[in-house]
Specification:
Blueprint (H helix, E strand, L loop, with lengths): L6 H9 L6 H13 L9 H13 L4 E5 L5 H9 L5 E6 L2 H13 L6 E5 L2 H6 L7 E4 L6 H8 L8 E5 L13 H14 L4 E6 L5 E6 L3 H6 L5
């Protein structure tokens, strides 16, 4: 993943972001030491932002598509209240083994339930509602994941999609993955069911909020 902002600015932002539990730094180091594509892991700024979004939205039940080694999952779980639940999905057993060890060591690990297997199959088996969804998995399926999770959210529920700037390749898509991200971005941008804003945090984050159904709006009594 290419940096879209100068490294010095990136470091400045991280230096002015709240420090994290040493467990996260240990997880980050092991991920970079053990995994073939460690850049898939969210950084401290993005992870802390996810935790803040979960807390600010007062989510009680969250869903993650793309667990990897568990950094983002732990951040999401940290934003959930006691008794909250995160369902996190992945297919890589090596990443799962690392994530499980760190989940077991975290005070927030009891909130996390891992579902291994193709995410679209997992999503079809889940019972709503989920208040918060983080999409950070194979880019070719982003549009399918989006369509699968939107019905699982109540009005006001929040979806966050990662890597939507795709190292700038969205401006000149050549590969199939590039075109898949562009198609997803266009799908969300034109979807009247949601409110949305694309942010230039790290590799691009799409914040997508499900609107209230028009029928529900009509049924509300008018204010005097």
């Amino acid at each position: 993943m290419a940096n879209l902002i100068p490294e010095a600015i990136d470091q400045y932002a991280e230096a002015h972001t709240e420090a994290v539990d040493p467990l996260f730094e240990e997880l980050r180091e092991e991920t970079y030491r053990s995994m073939a594509s460690p850049g898939m892991q969210v950084g401290r700024v993005e992870g802390t932002f996810l935790r803040s979004l979960v807390a600010l939205s007062r989510a009680r039940r969250a869903l993650e598509i793309g667990m990897f080694t568990g950094y983002s999952g732990l951040m999401i779980a940290a934003g959930l209240p006691e008794g909250g639940e995160l369902v996190t999905c992945d297919v890589d057993p090596k990443a799962e083994a690392i994530a499980r060890r760190y989940f077991e060591r975290s005070s927030h690990g009891s909130k996390i339930r891992i579902r291994m297997g193709p995410a679209l199959e997992t999503l079809a088996s889940l019972e709503p509602p989920f208040d918060f969804v983080f999409i950070d998995a194979d880019k070719e399926n982003y549009s399918r994941y989006y369509e699968a999770v939107l019905p699982l959210l109540p009005p006001g529920g929040l979806i966050v999609a990662d890597n939507v700037l795709w190292s700038g390749k969205v401006l000149d898509p050549k590969e199939a993955t590039d075109r898949a991200i562009v198609a997803f971005n266009d799908l969300v941008s034109s979807d009247p069911r949601v409110e949305k804003v694309m942010l230039t945090v790290r590799d691009g984050m799409f914040l997508i909020r499900k609107k209230q159904e028009p029928s529900a709006l009509r049924s509300q009594p008018e204010k005097a």
